[in-house]
Design goal:
Elements: H1 3-25, H2 38-43, H3 46-49, H4 54-62, H5 71-83, H6 88-114, H7 117-129, H8 134-138, H9 143-165, H10 168-184, H11 191-200, H12 211-216, H13 218-237, H14 249-268, H15 286-305, H16 312-324, H17 347-365, H18 370-396, H19 401-411, H20 416-422, H21 425-434, H22 439-451, H23 455-468, H24 473-485, H25 489-502, H26 507-524
């Protein structure tokens, strides 16, 4: 292919990727917050609304919020708020821009590594329009997902330059962008191992064991270990890590095996997707475990058996397995069994296998003629059209919190998280029946009873919520409000001061404390 033609094809492919993703996802730019996490990330976080300032930057760099430390994500929100209007559509629009950029970067990286423009284009399109990726784009709170991926793809681009040019400045860029990726979300802690896989294929650097290539990854590995320790600390600090009493080691292993099969199933048939899938805890279906084990065993067997003839199978499948490790549930963070957003990076490995595999099958079945590649391309176009249609349908589910959680309840009827965020008293009571220790349901139900003036009922649920989670300032704020209405000002002040200790910048708590002091002064006078 002539050099000029190559650039024309790349520009044309980039334009097509951009237009296709923009058409599929554009409706999100008109959508609202959904309430679930969006409130704690954006609408109720004053540091985001104030934009860039010394105080907000310091807060972003030093604050552990929602059991996470991801300063780059906070800074990206602040940048949006500073440059544009502080409205949900702006944050949605920026998520979409990052997603488009990620697809374009993946396209360029694969071209640079493999030299195959059409195959690289197909992988990038699959990445861009697969319905499993809708959650990462349409959910404002998942900015960390698209931003972290953006940084890691820049790191991969720099790594390609480093491999081909052997210039240390590119290795420094690899480290810099890797660090930025982890500062957005510590998902890619397995990145050093991904680079080793790419050294095997398509970079062909490791035709035999090479200690130098392993030593080359040591600085990255050290960074990964540091961020693993930081993440474990912050997740424990925020109470997000589940203990072994709630989910045993055996159940974690069973669910992890089942999850590897679940993501493959949803890759093939991405329907009935939901924002939350409850962890089975003590009852992982046997069929799910068998299917997951079959995926793992067959994938590993294919990786070894075809390692010389079709090495992309090894790189693609191990990419999928390795990048899912941090979120596969062996260290259980949160109450989900799996999540659409967790597939954002890992599915890339399977997209590579699907695309290269179809082209190779077509090539060999047609007697190694160009006709086979055309047939493969046509098949991929059909697959892409199928996924694009499902993607557009899935995007509509994210219009607002009501549409998201109504759909989640249709997909998973015993979805106590969806019930909690539907917000009605019957839904909240059902959520507590399914999960009696689910603090958000207890808190929301207590709050709902406050609005109805049923203070005694509200106390029952809020006191239980406070017992289960002693680090929730809003629970104490509501308890303080109840006791204020009951004229018990000493108890009111006690709970409000607890809330203020947990969140010294909580404006509502400060206002309520002042109100109590004013009332006490009036009574004393």
């Amino acid at each position: 292919m002539k050099h000029g033609n190559k650039h024309t094809y790349i520009l044309g492919g980039s334009f097509f990727i951009t237009i296709l993703i923009a058409i599929a996802f554009y409706p999100v730019t008109t959508y609202n917050y959904i309430g679930y996490d969006d409130s704690s990330y954006i609408s109720e976080t004053p540091h985001v609304h104030t934009g860039f300032s010394k105080q907000s930057i310091y807060w972003a760099l030093t604050n552990v919020h929602t059991a996470n430390w991801h300063p780059l994500t906070w800074l990206s929100y602040m940048l949006d708020s500073s440059l544009f209007a502080d409205k949900p559509g702006v944050y949605h629009w920026m998520n979409l821009n990052y997603h488009i950029l990620n697809a374009l970067l993946l396209f360029l990286i694969l071209i640079n590594m493999t030299g195959h423009i059409l195959r690289s284009l197909m992988v990038a399109i699959l990445f861009g329009i697969h319905p499993l990726h809708v959650e990462s784009v349409a959910w404002i709170s998942e900015r960390k997902d698209v931003l972290s991926t953006c940084m890691i793809l820049f790191s991969l681009l720099a790594y390609t330059k480093y491999v081909y040019l052997s210039e240390k400045k590119y290795y420094c860029l690899v480290i810099l962008f890797f660090l930025l990726s982890l500062l957005a979300k510590p998902m890619m802690v397995t990145f050093p191992f991904v680079l080793l896989l790419l050294d095997i294929w398509p970079l062909s650097r490791m035709t035999k064991p090479d200690k130098a290539l392993i030593h080359e990854k040591i600085p990255l590995l050290i960074i990964s270990i540091i961020f693993c320790l930081i993440t474990l600390w912050t997740q424990n600090l925020g109470g997000a890590c589940q203990n072994l009493e709630s989910i045993s080691i055996k159940m974690r292993i069973f669910n992890a095996v089942a999850a590897y099969g679940w993501y493959v199933t949803k890759l093939i048939a991405p329907t009935n997707l939901a924002i939350f899938y409850p962890h089975p805890q003590a009852d992982v279906p046997l069929i799910s475990i068998i299917w997951g084990a079959a995926v793992i065993i067959s994938g590993l067997w294919g990786s070894i058996y075809f390692r010389h003839s079709f090495p992309y199978i090894m790189t693609g499948f191990l990419w999928y397995m390795v990048t899912l490790v941090p979120v596969i549930g062996l260290v259980q963070v949160g109450l989900q069994a799996y999540a659409d957003r967790y597939s954002y990076i890992p599915l890339t490995g399977l997209f590579i296998i699907l695309t290269w595999g179809l082209f190779d099958i077509g090539f060999y079945l047609s007697g190694k003629s160009r006709t086979g590649e055309k047939v493969a391309a046509a098949m991929l176009v059909i697959i892409i059209l199928f996924y694009t249609n499902l993607c557009c349908l899935q995007v509509r589910k994210w219009k607002n919190g009501t549409t998201v959680f109504q759909h989640a309840l249709r997909v998973v009827p015993d979805n106590y998280v969806a019930m909690t965020h539907m917000g009605t008293i019957p839904h909240l009571k059902n959520a507590i029946i399914l999960r009696p220790d689910y603090v958000p349901a207890l808190y929301n139900l207590g709050t709902a009873f406050i609005r109805e003036g049923k203070l005694d009922d509200a106390l029952i649920y809020l006191l239980k919520a406070a017992h289960l989670n002693a680090k929730h300032p809003d629970i104490y704020n509501n308890l303080g409000g109840i006791y204020y209405q009951l004229n018990n000002y000493s108890l009111s002040l006690k709970y409000l001061q607890k809330a203020l200790a947990l969140n010294p910048n909580h404006a509502h708590v400060k206002k309520n404390i002042q109100r109590v002091y004013d009332k006490i002064s009036m009574v004393n006078d």
